[in-house]
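Hi R.,

Here are the chain sequences for the assembly we discussed:
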Amino acid sequence: MAEGYVYFPGCSLKSTGVAYEESLLTLFRLLDVKLQELDDWNCCGATSYMAIDEDSAFALSARNLALVHKSGNSQVLAPCAACYLVLRKTQDYVQRYPSIRAHVSSTLKAANLPMAADSVHTRHPLEVLYNDIGVNRIRSKVSRKWQGGPVVCYYGCQAVRPYYEVDKPVNQSRMEELLDAAGIPTVNFALKTKCCGGSLTGTIHSVGLRLNYIILKEAARKGAKAIVTLCPLCQFNLDAYQSEIRRRMKENLDMPIFYFTQVLGWALGGGTRELGLHRAISGTTLVKQWFSAAKEVAAHV
Amino acid sequence: MQIERKMKQQREAHPGWASEIAQLPGCEKLFSCIQCGTCSGTCPLSIYMDYTPRRIINLVREGFQEEALASQTIWLCASCYSCAARCPQKIQLTDVMYSLKREAIKKKLFPKRFPIPVLASEFHKMVAKRGRSSEMWLVMRMALKSNPMILLTMMGTGWQLFRTGRMSLRMEKIDRVHELPHKSVGATEVH
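And here is the predicted structure of the full complex:
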């Protein structure tokens, strides 16, 4: 663990999901684990690139794996669910399909880059916190008592399917276990891996809103006061469109949507700004209440 | 009043097509589908689709190419992998959907002025050229080429993102653009 991990931010963590980047870097700093951002990384390709050009989609993603290899580290940390899946799938498909390997190899060769799909490991921060750092180490580092209400853990889709290294295939629980170690109460949530619709909120707006409404409504029905996510697109959809959902569905919903790195980072003593908590759009009253400066002092254990 | 035949006949189908699809990565198990409908049941979007995922598989297997490729279904698929995870025959239906999307683009059979293929095409163009996606500009291009009214629904959200420092107007680009893969198919312009 001394050498740490190469950090692959992806496009979202530099824009709409910037609070994810801020809280991730803060949390890993508090845990004394080194993260080094990948130099000149490119977009993973997400779901859209693959829909147009498959061969180049794998080659595009393989460039990032090659850059990781060149950096001298073999562990790449991809917090965004889409980036995680694309990198993981590229490794898998290059190994499984000779035709894909041949195309990717020749494309990389033309750019003077090595084929690294076999030697680089794609990791997700949830699973790194759980496997490499461990629940006990997190528990031992907790310095603040949770001041907020119960939350539901929402895993979304691409981090937990179709590869099962981030968590189990069904009844995922690692986020709950980590939050529990930090003293944050969680409520069981049957929709924890139901899709938020991804970019549908931007394309077929009413359908995208409906999918997010179902998730928000069920979380509220379960008695949760907030939703904790691990994907920038899930967080964005649930957070940024909540006021419109409230208006359209005539519902009294106003929930903060956090990244798991934000709530864990706060329990470990991170500041509200360095955790990106000031970037919340929905549930801001609760955010202020739960993480206020006065509480911050009183909460120290 | 002109009454026309609504049902397609076998001779109008493309019998060899399914075998071609079944050779693509991830689509190998196409013929082992037992039509159980687990995919349609677990799909969060099947209630909005013109053909459910189960029916898409059968359309492909029976060679009803135009119906499958021009469907909204393949574009509504959000790649959440619920079907792939639950299929008792382990069919990677998400990969089948990707293959159909690519063929629909190549054959220009996608539904016209439908924002999803436009988004995919604009995203591909931007990333192929610059190596990164700039969300703001992507949304603008997608809306202008499909349905500009979308922009109206986004103004409030845009302001909230701007206010919280979550939206940038900068066009992102990597340094070593020459290392990016070149196009391997003639990516069609989508409108």
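Chain B touches chain A through 63 residues (CB under 8 Å). Chain B has a mean pLDDT of 93.

Let me know if anything looks off.

Best,
T.
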